[in-house]
Amino acid sequence: MLLAERLRHAFGAVRALDDVSFTVQSGQTLAVFGPNGAGKTTLLRVLAGLIHPHGGTARIAGGRRAVGWIGHQPQLYGTLTVRENLRFWGSLYDLRPPALAARIDALLARLDLGEHADRPVRALSRGLVQRVAIARALIHDPRVLLLDEPFTGLDRTAAETFRRLLAQQAAQGRAAVLVTHNVEEGTELATDVAFMRAGRFVHLAPRAGRDAGAIADAYRAAIGGADRGADA
Amino acid sequence: MKLVRTGRWITLIALALLAGVFVRALAFTPVERVQGPAQKIFYLHVPSAWCAMLAMALVGIAGILYLFLKDPRFDRFGEASAEVGTVFAMVMLTTGPLWGKPVWGTWWTWDARLTLTLFLFLLFLGYLVLRGAVTDPGLRARYSAVLGICGLVLLPFIHLSVYMFRTLHPQPIVLKPSAPSLPGPMLTTLLFSFAVFTLLYVGFVVQRYALGMLREQAETAGGGAHA
Amino acid sequence: MPDWWRHGWIVARKDLLVEFRSRTAIVSAIVFTVLVLVVFNFGRDPTAVAAIDLAPSILWVTFTFAAMLALNRAFQLELENQALDGLLLAPVGRSSIYLGKLLANLLFVGIVEAVGLPLFALFFNVPILPVILPLVAVIALATIGFVAVGTLFSAMTTRTRFAELLLPTLVLPFMIPPLMWAALTTGALLAGRPLSEVGGWLRMLAAFDIVFVTLAFLLFPATVNE
């Protein structure tokens, strides 16, 4: 569903991507862990087609229409209500009014946002905004999810809801790439794990039942001292 | 570096020839009957206007090439051409009033061509300011290319406007539909000056381009040492 | 309706809705227009200069400044929460995004002009009614030209430092030709000259519009694609 082949990209003299290759199949979730500045966000932006890489190819079955993006910025308009935001983004994906309204209601119910539907996004708490951002990303039922530190700002229960939602998505055969610097947050969802450092994948393997502690140990071994302060 | 030296040589030759232009314009070209000696400034004013226009046009063409080929050399060239063009536009804008005062009786007049050349100068400044405001090299190159192309397209509108208005400014002398209307010796001096100014432009641009390249290399080396 | 137009309209409608919610930009642009007109009125000596002589330039200076306020706003609101990334990710053409921004800006500036024009006629006692149709045509033609260029440039400047200052610096050289033709045409119209006299300028305005609107559509992708 998703293919990255020998991706290379640089910002000036800084190498953000250096020969990165992988594939993600239907139902798989690849978690990419790495310190800040390792090139994780660049990787996602290249996959999404927001950045044209200097070398290599990134392909997603179904193209842009198939991609759902959840980043640390919610991509919502603060002065518009939750429903207006969802309606706008949905109509950009060619959802027509009756189907669109039904889809919005379903998402609002699933993410427990019903009572906030007609409040402007600006008036919502950080956790609620992130939930709206999730609804926004799922509005067109994307087959591939690209997640950039999606747990930022979510409280424990919201994070749990979100995790369940992602697990459902994977069960339905969706593919996902999740990047984060926090090993604890991402491990549970991942079927595959990669460690990234200075634009390179220094580790790429199936999770194979390893728990967060085992992944964290492997991460420390692979990234080493270079990661000190990454969580700061 | 070789390119810097080449540029320096071209510039030196052009400057020597420029002295030749001065001598020829002052001593070996007849004085114009109506305008008197003030007309001599033409041999500086018109060629610098030409170079400024040429510089803007090449900035635009470099922009088109950059957007298609994504080769940073075109961006570097655009930067060089714009900076050099700014200098020529400045010469154009200062020699204009110097000539206007004795001939028109006023330093400045809001005639269409004057106004629009002033805005050509501002266009250069805008281009350079934009470059200064963007730090990411890729973004800067794309933005500069877009602005440069728009500038190139604006040029014909500037040129056309000359024919649209009753204006104090003399009509273009060389680049116009009918044959050039200038007495032989004056035309020779003017064309000679055109050639010298164009050479000067080339010399400046080559040097500026080479400097831009050296700066990038220095930055890359510096960045590499930090990483 | 072709898809690119429909997508463009969706974007424009969203922009207008955002604007309608806060109303800060449109209200400040209108207040600003009124203020500029008032300042001009006090700045001139009514015994020495007839209003009709100054009227075209006052009108166009006012509209220029008001347009600057609108143009800065267009992409600024997309930077909030990185909504621009969302637009670029959506399966809509880049040209639809530009179209949406252009339409919203045109409407915005159009509203300000619709308020400014009668006020201008009132304050300066200029009879605009007899020439209202050609006058509106000139205003529309000139507005399309500089809003097209301004919308393109604002896509670049909003992501730089000093965006509010940089945009006018870049746009003004491009505004001068259409502004000059528009001011001359306005002057001729207000002085009761026949329409045939301003035909050349109108054609120039139209040519400028066609060239720069086309160019902006072609170049816009380069400002957002990385």
Describe this structure in words.
The complex is a heterotrimer of chains A (232), B (227) and C (226). Chain A has helices spanning 40-48, 82-92, 97-110, 126-138, 156-171, 183-186, 212-223, and strands spanning 2-11, 14-24, 29-33, 55-60, 67-70, 144-148, 175-180, 192-197, 200-206. With 232 residues, chain A is an alpha/beta fold. In chain A, helix 2 (82-92) crosses helix 3. With 227 residues, chain B is mainly α. Chain B has 6 helices and no strands. Chain B is globular. Chain B has a single domain (2-226), classed as Four Helix Bundle (Hemerythrin (Met), subunit A). The longest helix of chain B is centred in the last third of the chain and has 43 residues, at 184-226. Chain C contains 8 helices and no strands. In chain C, helix 3 packs parallel to helix 6 (132-157). Chain C is globular, with a radius of gyration of 18 Å. The mean pLDDT of chain C is 87.
Unreliable stretches of chain B (pLDDT < 50, length at least 5) are none
- Average pLDDT of chain C, to the nearest integer? 87
CATH topology of chain B: Four Helix Bundle (Hemerythrin (Met), subunit A)
Number of domains of chain C: 1
Q: What would you report as the Rg of chain B, rounded to the nearest angstrom? A: 19 Å
Which whole number gives the mean pLDDT of chain B?
A: 81
Shape of chain C: globular
CATH class identity of chain B: Mainly Alpha
Tally of helical runs of chain C = 8
Q: Which structural class matches the secondary elements of chain C?
A: mainly alpha
N-to-C series of helices and strands of chain B = HHHHHH
**What summary fits the major beta sheet of chain B?**
none
Tell me the radius of gyration of chain C: 18 Å
Instruction: Quickly count the domains of chain B.
Output: 1
* Overall SS class of chain B: mainly alpha
